[in-house]
Design goal:
Protein name: Vacuolar protein 8
Family: Belongs to the beta-catenin family.
CATH architecture of the largest domain: Alpha Horseshoe
Order of helices and strands: HHHHHHHHHHHHHHHHHHHHHHHHHHH
Organism: Coccomyxa viridis
Keywords: Lipoprotein, Membrane, Repeat, Vacuole
Number of domains: 3
Structural class: mainly alpha
Number of helices: 27
Membrane topology: Lipid-anchor
Length: 459
Amino acid sequence: MRACARARAAVSRAVQSATECGPRAGASVPLLAGICSSTRAQLVHPVVHQMPSRAHLAVVLGAAAAACLSQTVAINGPEQLEPDALEDLARDLSSTNTADKERAVSMLSSLTLYLEYHSAMMKAGVFPALIKAILDARMVPQVRVIALGCAADLLKENEAKKIAANNSEFIPTLLNALKSEGGWENGPEEGGIARASSARALAELCAAPELHTTISRSGAARALAEHGAEAAEVSRSEDKTYSSLSEVPGTMVERHAVEDERFTAGALYNLASSSTGVTCILDAGDNAVLGLGRWASSKDPILQRYGVGALSRVGTSSPRAFGAVVDAGCLPALVAACNSDDAQAQCFAAGAIGKLVNFGGEPAHLLLQAQAPSALMTMLEGTKAAGPGRVSGNSKGVMRGVQSCAVRAILSTLSSQSFSKELLDAGLLPKVQKLLDSGLDAKTDAELIKGLGEILGRT
C-alpha cells in the first residue's frame, strides 16, 4: 500500500499529462505507426487517449485498482516521473499481494505507451520486473497479459532488447503465448490478447538484425514463419475493406486476431532484413513464402505492405530465395503490387523488380513474362497513387513519391536490353516527357534523362 500511495502521486498526473499531449510513442517496427493497438483498450482502458474508467478497471482488475487509478494526484513536472515511485511499482510486481500487482501493472500500462517515459522506467528496473512477471506461470492471468503488453512497449528500447535476448526463458515464453500454451490460454479472449502482444514483442526483437541468430536458435523464427503461414491461409478468404491504416473491422476478438497477424507479418518483414532471417523463412518450408505472397495480395493495407516488403527482401536476397518465390507462385503478386492501393507496397514492389532485373538471366526473363514493364509504366503515370479508395492518402506528394519509386526502378533495369525494349514498347517516351514537363526534382529529372538516353542509344 505504501508503494501504491507513492506511485499514485507520481503516475496518475503523468498519465493525464501524456493524455493531453496524445500518444507520441512511434513504433520501432516499420509501418506500424498507423495501427491503434486494442490490447490495452480491452484490458485497461477503452481508448488509449483517455484515462481508464473506474467501472472498466473494476471489471478487469478489481475495485482496488480502479480506486487507485481514479485519484487526482500530482507529478514531479510535466515530463518527469519520480524514480522512487517507479521502483516501488517494479517491486510491487513481485508482491505476494495480488492487489499490489494489479495496481502496479495497470499504472505501468498507462505509461509504457509513451517513449519519453521509457528511459526512466528502464533505469528504475521496470523491464526486468515485467519479465519476471511474464515468466511466472502462477501469476494472475490478467496481470501477466498486461505485463506482456508493457514489455512489448519497452522493447522499442535497445537496452530492453539486450536484456530480453540474454534471458534464456523469455523468447520461449513468448512462443508459448503465441501458441496459447503454458497457461496463456487462460488469459482474456482465450489467449487472444496474449498472442497479439507476443507477436508485437517478437516483431520488436526482429527489428534488431544482430539478434536474428539468437532468435533463430530459439526456434522463434521458424515458429513465426509457420504461424504467419497459418494466419495468411485463414485470412485470405476474408472479404473486408479498410478505409484507413488504423481501421480494424469486426468484433474485439477479431481485432486481436488482426493485430496478431499484422505483428507477425511485421516480424517476418523485419526478419527478412538479414541473410540469417531469410534462411529461417526459407527453411520453414514452401508455405512460409506462400504466406508472404498471400499477404501481398491482401485487402488489409498493413498486411499487404509487410507481405510485399518481406517478399521483396526474400526474393532479392539470393538466387535460391528468388527460386522459392517463383516456386510458391508469388512472382505475379509481387508485380501486381506495383499498382496496389498502397503507396509503400508499390515502392517495395518496384524496388524489387529493379534489383531482380539486374540479376539477369531467368529473373529478368520471368519478370518480362509477368508483364513487369507494363506494371512499371502504369505506376509511372501515378494515376493509381490518387485513387478514390486509397488508404495511403490522395495527396500530390504521395503521387510524386510513387512516381519517383517507378523512375528509380526503371533506371535500375537499364542493364537489360530486352527489358528496356519492352519499356519503350509500353509507352515509356511519352510518359517520361509528360513527367519531365510536370517536374519531379532536378536530380531525378537529370537521372531520368540520362537513363533514357542510354536506352535510346542501345535501341
